[in-house]
Design brief:
17% strand; two-stranded antiparallel ribbon; 16 helices; elongated; disordered N terminus; alpha+beta; 58% helix
Amino acid sequence: MIATAQAPVLVGSADIAAADDPYALLTSAPASGRNSLRILQTIPSALGALRANKGRSILTTLGIIIGVAAVIAIVALGQGASASVSSQLQGLGTNLLTIMPGSTRSGGANSSAGSSITLKAADADAIEQKVSGLTGVSPVVSGNSQIIAGGQNWSTRVQSVTPAYLTINDWKIAAGSAFTADDNTNSNNVAVLGQTVATNLFPNGQSPIGQLVRIRNVPFTVIGVLAAKGSSGFGDQDDTVIIPFQTGQVRLFCAASINQIVVQVGDASQITTVSSEITTLLRQRHQLQTSAADDFSIRNNTDIITRVSSVSDTMTMLLGGVAAVSLVVGGIGIMNIMLVSVTERTREIGIRLAIGAQPGDVLAQFLVEAVVLSVLGGVIGSLVGASVALLLPIVAGWTTVLPWNAIVLSFAVSAAIGMFFGIYPARKASQLDPIVALRYE
């Protein structure tokens, strides 16, 4: 009945002890190698205990699997949506300032922004000449018109701009060519069609280049077709017709004022300074009193891109946080199962302690079991989440970006959760009284 007296005989036969109980080797190991031997013996022992209850182990890891997979899939969707929106907004041009007329007031009622006629083409010329740090300036006169080509017609937005407008807004030419500065100076009747307009006016693969179209009964020769940009938060960017500014202002719209001025700044860090200079210049040109409000507005395209990206990132973090809650739930499930395991294996623990195993040995085994469960769940969850992220663009057509940082983080968090929630059951097992444990039925 005295375990201490029998321990040397039991542990002396290493082959028998190893077959019966891996912890027996720990009782005979030298102090210097005890820690390393403890680690080597704990892992296979823990794995053996988990294999003995395969069904329970798999069900226990489900919470971690679902949590990790959900986090990865949601972050992939969020980052994909953010990248898609940013790409669409980048298509509108970068480092842009859009200057629009202010609102009008009639009978005590204010109209919408851009309804006044305070901007002139001369304002655009003054900005180009007097404001430094600009890479392009273009006045814009636009309006909706019915475009007719042969037996086809299409209602779209016609924009009268200078050649710099195409560069400012990053428009590429898919076929033909863009109009030149001479076309603008000579008010030539030439037009560049967006992809949507070209497809509807010239179906069945017809080439629009060299064809005549009528805009407000004015004939124009199509000299180019714009490369597709797709839709954005401001509508279909390809549903447009672009003509020279002088042609549109004089022959088409007969407008004394302009709808807007588009300005591109060379250095993004100078956007605020340039905006301030433009404000000062336009107030001087419009002879506004110090106390008077601006009769124009300046919209910063970079701010729009930054704000939209920030909102998208916030939503991604929020949804990812909600999904991460399931990781905590999975950790609680691991703790519950480990507590049940401690109760079921009380007598086994008592035998180990009685033949010489230290409390640290028992604590290590149960802690390793908890970590193995959570890490296994993390690995499977990462594979499932990555697979979902890769399949969504194929199955649903959604844009996703595989978040490698989220995969690594989720895996690390799952391991930390297993350790955190495994400590209490492991400590409870290691602190059992051997005598009480041996009597447990």
